Amino acid sequence: MSVPRGYVDYVIQQARLDNSLQGLTKFIQDPNGEQQYQVNIVCIDFAQGQPHTPQQWRIEPRDGYHTYPGYIHTTLPSRSDQNQRSHEHMRQRIMMQMTTIPENIEGRIILVEDIDRHVVAHLGTQYNLPLSFLATYLTTELSNSPAHEPEPPLMTLAPSKSISDHCMHLHYQRVIDLGIGKQRKKLYSRSNVRRTLKPTPLLDERCPGLARSCCSLYLCHDENDKWICR
Prior knowledge:
Layout: H1 5-17, H2 22-29, E1 39-46, E2 55-59, H3 79-99, E3 107-113, H4 117-126, H5 131-138, H6 153-156, H7 159-162, E4 167-180, E5 187-188, E6 196-199, E7 206-221, E8 227-229
Parallel strand pairs: 3-8
Antiparallel strand pairs: 1-2, 1-3, 4-7, 5-6, 6-7, 7-8
Helix pairs in contact: 1-2, 2-5
């Protein structure tokens, strides 16, 4: 399964006008194949006087079956092709369930852990999410050479645009134990959204580190005027 070409082209076009979107451009294309981890999704529905059990899904890291222009089937599909198609169908079904709200529901909270480019494109298209919002969530690393690399969107946005009544970004760091050994200059988390892990001076022969992350919230309404928070 590939990300819709039209959405990729739109992101690339906008990034030419706004340098702070370069991180989003790289993420949506995934040129180095770094997005190899599962995506966890939880949906919590709300309706007056009706408790609802949260729905949970897990999307596997495989992209699924790709179709290429000009490709013609000359033989029966192999078992591998059938498995890839089955996985693509499963991914599409989960993403549609995630964004389809029943009539008796007033609103839904969509929680996505370790999002990948497919889910970014689906949510971005479904709810017309601003590219600056997506880029601010994805890009948290400060460049050591600002003359050559763009700063994260949060560093370039005006205060009036970084805080609003419908979106919020909570950037934070937590201390982790990097084990025994010499310090390393640059580390990254093992995740679809790569975050920097900054080693600190050794403490009793162990190396603590600071793991950077972000939790982003966006409130909007769908075409049926049901509220969505993700």
